[in-house]
Amino acid sequence: xxxxxxxxxxxxxxxxxxxxxxxxxxxxxxxxxxxxxxxxxxxxxxxxxxxxxxxxxxxxxxxxxxxxxxxxxxxxxxxxxxxxxxxxxxxxxxxxxxxxxxxxxxxxxxxxxxxxxxxxxxxxxxxxxxxxxxxxxxxxxxxxxxxxxxxxxxxxxxxxxxxxxxxxxxxxxxxxxxxxxxxxxxxxxxxxxxxxxxxxxxxxxxxxxxxxxxxxxxxxxxxxxxxxxxxxxxxxxxxxxxxxxxxxxxxxxxxxxxxxxxxxxxxxxxxxxxxxxxxxxxxxxxxxxxxxxxxxxxxxxxxxxxxxxxxxxxxxxxxxxxxxxxxxxxx
Length: 331
Prior knowledge:
By secondary structure, the protein is of the alpha/beta class. The longest helix has 17 residues, at 159-175. The protein has two domains: 20-128 and 255-279, Rossmann fold (3-Layer(aba) Sandwich); 130-252 and 297-330, Response regulator (Rossmann fold), CATH 3.40.50. Mean pLDDT is 92; it is low at 1-22. Helix 5 (130-144) packs parallel to helix 6 and helix 7 (192-204) crosses helix 8 (217-228). A six-stranded parallel β-sheet has the order 2-1-3-4-5-11, sandwiched between helices. A six-stranded mixed β-sheet has the order 7-6-8-9-10-12, with helices on both faces. Strand 1 (26-30), helix 2 and strand 2 form a beta-alpha-beta unit. The chain is built from eleven helices and twelve strands.
């Protein structure tokens, strides 16, 4: 019996140690500190890889980062596991991923939400025109507010999040130039309590619709909306399921599509290393949530479709920064 147990243990070790076959692609991702179940873009990224596993037979895995200092070691762990393509989820991973790419030129890497001026051939940057979806939810907010005041909660003050804010501001302006916008940054993507506090303050100041681009901080906004009987606008994923009666719409950023598409290309022998891939409305990379029809009137959704067409055609150029918003506002 002892010999049998020893043999079984040896077989288990051998199974774990056997690498993926030559025909099996392995793709892994390192989350940022929000974790894989953040109800936001880390979770969307993992859903994209799960789809790749189901539809393409890709071997997928993830490692969660608890703090910024984990990024480098987690990338090393994924490298040691023999993963073919390693994803870093979020702009905060950009430096660690660039260093890893430079140190391991034969290893493929990709990062969500960052673009480099000079990208190594073994690295892909993926960015989203989140300002375009933010413009659409801003337009909806401007048309549906009954108080003439709406809010925006950002996670950390950084160009990626500025895109959400200024796209939202422009959409509100385009929908109703008389609507006031409250804005505050939590300087966190995980502090739901702070998100709730900021949201409650905005609601008390008269805002009846608040949009967030703040990861887990947004959970606090949605909780406040439920308690106050107000509207919240979700981000990255369709967040209506978190509060079906209080999430008006969501500005979706299809991180899942990007993860799946680049994994699919790799299975086909295509690698777009050394460049940045951009996803906007035209590419199906951003949009408003399918559940918007639950609360947004049909005639307003028809207007939104017309606005979307103007953005895709280039008639409306959506701002993504303070400077581009000033240009938009001056027109």
